[in-house]
Amino acid sequence: MTLKLVIAEKPSVAQSIAKVIGAYERHDGYVEGSGYLVSWCVGHLVGLAQADAYEERFKKWNYEDLPIVPEDWKYEVASDKKKQFAILKELMFRNDVDELIEATDAGREGELIFRLVYYMAGCDKPFKRLWISSMEDSAIKEGFANLRDGSQYDALYQSALCRSQADWIVGINGTRLFSTLYNQKLTVGRVQTPTLAMLAERSSQIDTFKKEKYFNVHLSLDGMDVTKEKLFDEQEATRLQSACQGQMATVKSVKKTEKSVNPPKLYDLTTLQRESNRYFGYTAQQTLDATQALYEKKLVTYPRTDSQFLTEDMESTALAVIGLITEKLGFEAAPSPDIKRVMNNKKVSDHHAIIPTAELRKQSVQDLPVREQDILKLIAQRLVSSTAQKHCFVETEIVVECAGETFTTKGKVITEPGWKCVEDSFRKSLKSKEKEAVEEPVLPQVNEGMTYQPVQAQLTEHFTSPPKPYSEDSLLSAMETAGNQDFDEDTEKKGLGTPATRASIIEKLVKSNYVERKGKQLLPTKDGINLACVLPDTVKSAKLTADWENTLMQIEKGQAAPEEFMEGIVAMTSDLVKTYHFLSEEEKGRFSGFKPEKEQIGICPRCGAPIYEGQKNFYCSNRECKFVLWKETKFLAGMKKKLTKKMAVSLLKEGKVKVTGLYSQKTGKNFDATLVLDDTGTYVNYKMEFPRK
């Protein structure tokens, strides 16, 4: 009997699939049954190797070695995942396995995860692709009934591979180039650097903003307030107030306009992350993690989507889910939900918009973690809102003339609440501090030609406001549209990163201490601002990065050549290295913020980064390196010695240091010796050399 090997991305997903296809027999690292073996990858099992895997000398960071561009790319298995990789490889090569089924997440990164494991294992057996947008049992069954040939996703894999290799080339070379120039670890990334530049630019706009005073002149007409706004000349504002005081005002026009606001679109990942931040203060990563957890619990559809529409065959599914939402969550849906307005096959590529699933019927929402409850209710509310009626109102604009100047006021009367009822009900049910929209005043009945006398005129003083710091909400929006103004209207725009990666980009900036969170605000740190200042426009360009993202999407569709994309990345990186090979003292002085506040005591023997003194050790400033000299060790303590700064300086410079007054536990006497640094690459040890007699 031959078997089919199903490879999922995570154990939880594998278990859900195994249950549906009838694989119940548990083994170490996989389950078996009904003609299937089901195993998993535990995320990224295989990744691009580090630079020193190509040449030993790349362990140290030297300008002379740049640019580092592999001719033949090397890959490595994550050290903590080697056991699972070995299990997968063994399963792939079992004689009774004749076919593989790729069941990793249906997207660019999921494709990369499977392919790298497949190629690293050296497997050449045929494979098919499971492509689903929901973890519901019915969706899994349908997916297995309609497996696609794996070759249909070769272009998607090439796009994912190009993204991965391009990030490696730009990151490795950019980071090493500017770190060696400024003698400090400076992290450069293809997407994170333009994102940091946007944050730094906004910070500069706020810091250099000069507020301006302006005045509004108000006329009080039997309780109705009409205004002349934003007069920056105080004398003119005062003159107008005096000219109107006690005079007659005449209504010149009363314009009533019927208006409507269409329901919002369904959620794609970025819009969901933005509104989650606005309502709950959740970060983009927290929202993605919660939505992914709901997806794996079969409660929502696939989260990493850039579509806000459903396919045209989902009408009955969406109607059934709306019924469940009203039953389980209490949202009041429209009597006849307009599903057709959220269906559009042309605007759904790989995955449709995020909506709840029919599994909601079986779930007690109160049993979910609070964050997952919030996200589920937010997604449910959006489906009900999106299929409700338009929000309709009559807007009235009144124009009044006094002392030769015009004053205006606006008000509106809602005629059909429509979808706003759902949104308002949801907002009121929350404990969030989100500000509710300020309602326009209800105006009295006014007719053209009416006069008011005497007029009461009042002057109010105001100041212009600086731009607001980015929040997770506004930064995601800016990332989504960055560089778009440089493209043609018919270009399918992608901005910085993708819906699946923007959250991780923000987290990397925070983790690298280039950005800090202050409430909902994302603020660049001093180091972040300095880095954005010293880096050239080439690596900060939102336009260039958005252009790359657009090309990656074209590669995914088979409309662009991967080789040409990579040639462009390599050419840009090489030009960067050639251009920035030297900094004058004047240039270095311009950015004194990068002069380390701590005294550098030496150079790391592993990677060449600066070594600084900590409270208990002497450590490498490159966090990925992990080289450290501890002041107190068992080895030195046995000889009644601690590692001093002077000793550490010599060890780092010469690889050894002469030490006097060492204590021998055997003889009880002191002795002198040379301490020699013995670094295994993982552990730092010492050897002893004794003077010849």
Overview of the molecule:
This protein is an alpha+beta fold and 693 residues long. It has 5 domains: 3-146, Rossmann fold, CATH 3.40.50; 174-203 and 471-587, Topoisomerase I, domain 2 (Orthogonal Bundle), CATH 1.10.460; 213-262 and 392-463, Topoisomerase I, domain 3 (Distorted Sandwich); 277-389, Orthogonal Bundle (Topoisomerase I, domain 4), CATH 1.10.290; 600-689, no CATH class. The chain contains 21 helices and 25 strands. Strands 2-3-4-1-7-8-9 form a 7-stranded mixed sheet, with helices on both faces. It has a 4-stranded antiparallel sheet with strand order 14-13-12-15. Strands 19-20-21-22 form a 4-stranded antiparallel sheet, covered by helices on one side. Strand 10 (213-221) and strand 11 form a beta hairpin. Helix 3 (108-120) packs across helix 5. The longest helix has 29 residues, at 154-182. It is globular and about 110 Å long. The N and C termini lie far apart (77 Å). 36% of the residues are buried.
User: Based on helices, strands and strand pairing, what is the structural class?
Assistant: alpha+beta
- Backbone shape: globular
Please give the CATH class of the largest domain: Mainly Alpha
CA-to-CA gap between the ends?
A: 77 Å
Q: Could you please say which CATH topology of the largest domain applies here?
A: Topoisomerase I, domain 2
Q: Mean of residue pLDDT?
A: 91
Strand fraction band?
15-25%
Enumerate the strands of the largest sheet in spatial order, edge to edge or round the barrel: 2-3-4-1-7-8-9
User: What's the count of strands?
Assistant: 25
Give me the number of helical elements. 21
Tell me the number of structural domains.
5
| Proportion of residues in helical segments | 25-40%
Can you say what the CATH homologous superfamily of the largest domain is? Topoisomerase I, domain 2
Low-confidence stretches: none
The rounded Rg comes to 32 Å
